[in-house]
TrEMBL record:
This is Response regulator. Residues 178-374 form the HD-GYP domain. PROSITE patterns: HD_GYP, RESPONSE_REGULATORY. The modification 4-aspartylphosphate is found at residue 57. Gene3D superfamilies: 3.40.50.2300, Hypothetical protein af1432.
């Protein structure tokens, strides 16, 4: 009976040596392990056993990891999915993200500790989903009991049922928006991309917010503003194909050999998105965002107005935020120092028109600061009706809710559960004028 209560993990890889390594690694794990040498064999295991988590290789004969996970998602949607893939498989990984709905991917060869932590977090996610299902079942049961009360309590039952239904509708609406909104999908995808870069990552969300303000100020078309916003969130997509040794070093510290490799990332990012018609302008902006106004940039040496204006805008906000974070130079700069640097290179690296408009919003985008209109707050002090002032992410950098989300009791309870499971405090900022008072 004890085995039946354990969580179960299915490992799928066509290389027996890999499966043997996984068996040794998780021999003393607290969950049941199942192993399959192909996607077809993995589907048979899923038919016979309840599985909480699938860890699948990408490259397999006959049925690829993306195909296998896509089928698994359609038949067992509640099972969490992780993909093992090499750096060269980024295109296939994007396909797996879209079709297989994977929770995350891990590069091969993997780090044992990283893999163990990823599996532990995935199983925690599955437990949270079970809690949600139990909560929904409990709500349904309570509704049924309320409906059986006598006529004297009918008014109270009706009121309570309406309250519960309203809460359920709000949760369904939030979930549907999360699932369907392209903005939210791209934000989540952005956090997955950035989570690989550890300390050498630029705050893409802050970049996107600043770029949007500048674009709106100069009255760019709404559709173009959206593409600039998306490009900011995804501008590092091409870096996923670069070695960690290059990504761990500030741009200014790269030697000539690594600089040549590093300069491939804008074009690689453009190529990855080129096949998505809806993101055609986004991919074009990403491909040109490292060009310089004087024509000395890369990858194509475009100059002045020949550079797409979205790319000129992206370059300014990227460097303004990146300089403050210490990603571009050896030492991080203050907000004023970063703006001074941008101004001093106006008409050389940067579009003078964009630099001028940046000055209007400079003081609103101080990295790691708390603005006068927001405050950091402990999860235990959160109240329904408060509006979050920044994106909220978990310990692994995965987006939980986005900026301007209105908090509800179920969301606050979810935050508390995540803190208990991860044993780490969430960083939550709320607007001072939106605390539900």
């Amino acid at each position: 009976m004890e085995l039946e209560n354990k969580e179960s993990v299915l490992f799928v890889d066509d290389e027996p040596a890999i499966l043997s390594s996984l068996k040794r690694l998780f021999r003393k794990s607290g969950f049941n392990c199942y192993f399959a040498e192909s996607g077809e064999e993995g589907l048979k295991v899923l038919e016979q056993q309840p599985i909480d988590l699938i860890v699948s290789d990408m490259r397999m004969p006959k049925m690829s990891g993306a195909e296998f996970l896509s089928i698994a998602r359609s038949k067992w949607p509640d099972t969490v999915r992780i993909l093992l893939t090499g750096h060269s498989d980024i295109g296939a990984t994007i396909e797996a993200l879209n079709k297989g709905g994977i929770y995350r991917y891990i590069s091969k060869p993997w780090n044992d500790q990283e893999l163990e932590e990823a599996i532990d977090q995935s199983l925690r996610l599955r437990r949270l989903e079970r809690e949600r299902e139990e909560w929904l079942k409990l709500t349904q049961t309570q509704n049924e009991k309320l409906q059986s009360f006598n006529t004297e309590l009918e008014a109270r039952v009706l009121t309570r049922t309406q309250e519960i239904q309203q809460t359920a509708d709000m949760l369904d609406m939030a979930y549907e928006e999360l699932k369907q909104s392209s903005d939210m999908f791209i934000k989540v995808f952005s956090t997955i991309i950035s989570s690989r870069f550890n300390s050498q990552r630029i705050n893409a969300s802050m970049m996107a917010d600043l770029a949007k303000k500048i674009a709106q100020k100069v009255n760019l078309p709404k559709d173009e503003i959206n593409h600039i916003y998306y490009a900011c969130l995804l501008h590092e997509l091409g870096k996923t194909g670069l070695p960690d040794s290059i990504l761990a070093v500030p741009e200014s510290s790269l030697d000539s050999e690594n600089t040549e490799i590093y300069r491939q990332y804008p074009a690689l990012g453009e190529m990855i998105l080129m096949g998505v018609d809806q993101l055609a302008l986004t991919s074009k902006i990403i491909g040109s965002h490292m060009e310089r106004f004087d024509g000395q940039g890369f990858p194509n040496g475009l100059k002045g107005s020949a550079i797409p204006r979205g790319a000129r805008l992206l370059r300014v906000v990227r460097d303004f935020i990146g300089l403050q974070m210490g990603v571009l130079e050896r030492e991080s700069m203050s907000n004023d120092e970063a703006f001074k640097y941008i101004k001093s290179h106006s008409a050389k690296i940067y579009d003078p028109g964009v630099v001028k408009v940046l000055g209007l919003f400079q003081s609103d985008f101080v990295v790691s600061s708390v603005s006068s209109g927001e405050r950091h707050i402990d999860v235990l002090a959160l109240k329904p009706g408060m509006k979050v002032a920044r994106d909220v992410t978990n310990a692994n950098g995965i987006l939980l809710i986005s900026k301007d989300f209105l908090l509800t009791n179920p969301i606050i309870n979810r935050f508390m559960s995540i803190e208990r499971l991860e044993r780490k405090k969430l960083k939550v900022y709320v607007y001072l004028d939106g605390e539900g008072k």
